[in-house]
Amino acid sequence: MPMILAANANAQGSHVGEWRHPDAWDRPAANIANAVRLAQIAEAGKFDLLFLADGNGVRQMDKPDLFAATSPSDRPGVFEPVTLLSALAMATRHIGLVATTTTTYDEPFHVARRFASLDHISGGRAGWNLVTTSNPGDALNFSHAEHVARDQRYERANEFADVVKGLWDSWADDAFPQDKASGRFLDPAKVHVLNHKGKHFQVAGPLNAPRPPQGYPVVFSAGQSEAGRDLSARHADCIFAIEATLPAAQALYADFKGRLAKYGRGPDDLKILSGVTIIVGETAQQAEDIAGELDDLVPPPVGVDYLSKMVGRSMKDYPLDGPMPDFEEEHVGHTGIGRAIVKVAKEQGLTVRQTYRRILPQMAGNMFKGDAQQVADVMEEWYRGKGCDGFMIAAPVVPTGLERFTRLVVPELQRRGLFRREYEGRTLRENLGLKRPPRRFG
Ligand SMILES: Cc1cc2nc3c(=O)[nH]c(=O)nc-3n(C[C@H](O)[C@H](O)[C@H](O)COP(=O)(O)O)c2cc1C
């Protein structure tokens, strides 16, 4: 099974200063021409898929410097992802198209219908990244006074995914003969009415779309809590994880693979993609230069706001060159990233300025930097060492970073027999080495 490569397809990139870099595209907000070009670069590099993270709200309005400068996971001016991927489906032929949609503020019928449509439009290349929503403020756009608590979000998410899959199974694969001669458009014996009645949802069904070409579009998820991991073990085909070191990634990999048997699944039924920022240069020095240029594009007020966002509390009143404060755990960010930042700053005795400069290039996650050999070496080590089944790659600067990756690193991975030279399969599932799920209602 070749290494899986996914492209993080945020057109504004993955570094706070990135959109300002001279090599970055001009005017990246809601720019369809850029999105098409990015998809085509990734497809030329034989990437498995494009991945669009998403949320349903404008963030950081309480942090004026960061709000004006924008940071990658804020996305104040982007396309709705399934709409965008439907357009990209018509501009590509092989690459998988994965969009994020929330189970907390959406309805299973809508989600089943949207992704079934995308799967048909793309000829079996759709994926759904199931999230329970990370940004609490999104709640205010959906008639909620506050964000739904984590336990409830995951309870709802499990039922939501059951319903979505049940709806995708509404029709047998051959339920639509569309036979002009007999006048039978469909075969009434080949539809199942779901009639779901649960704690969170009552959904009659059937879905008004034929069964998706992949049976089920590929399901992604990214939750890291106990509840999040269990949801992934039960429902996901792929997870997107971020770990900063190989031992941590290996522990996470073993944990996820170990949870599958409980749900009657094998270790190959869930693929683990490790999120990483990759800065590759023709030489190691060029990679260093790009990283330095990016960091220089972030003025201190923006850096401090960004750090505040990552640790979940305001850093404005702390001296820039004073030590990074050692917060109590319960005060720090809600995803674990904030805690990790504070821990590293403490261990290494970093100042506030050094801490934000440390997290800028990789959004507090992982980074591989160097020439093609160096980058391929560490990718190989993680892959062969069971730290992951592949990578979710952010490659600053958009688009030159991804172009350089496909020109320099992809051929090196191919030479080492780690990555495909041509797409093997017709669908995203086939390319990922995932089975097509049988229909639940025979
Ligand atoms: C790598 C990664 C990517 C994520 N992408 C998104 C996203 O695009 N949209 C979103 O609302 N949440 C996203 N999340 C948040 C998770 O889906 C989840 O809601 C959050 O991590 C809290 O759940 P947990 O406590 O189980 O981790 C992401 C999380 C991780 C770790």
Automatic annotation (TrEMBL):
Q: Which CDD domains match?
A: Nitrilotriacetate_monoxgenase
MF GO annotations:
monooxygenase activity; oxidoreductase activity, acting on paired donors, with incorporation or reduction of molecular oxygen
Occurrences of domain Luciferase-like (ranges): 23-384
Residue positions binding FMN: D54, T100, Y154, S225
**Record keywords: Acyltransferase included?**
no
Q: Which top-rank group of organisms is this from?
A: Bacteria
Report keywords, A-Z. Flavoprotein, FMN, Monooxygenase, Oxidoreductase
Entry similarity comment = Belongs to the NtaA/SnaA/DszA monooxygenase family.
Q: Name the chain's protein.
A: LLM class flavin-dependent oxidoreductase
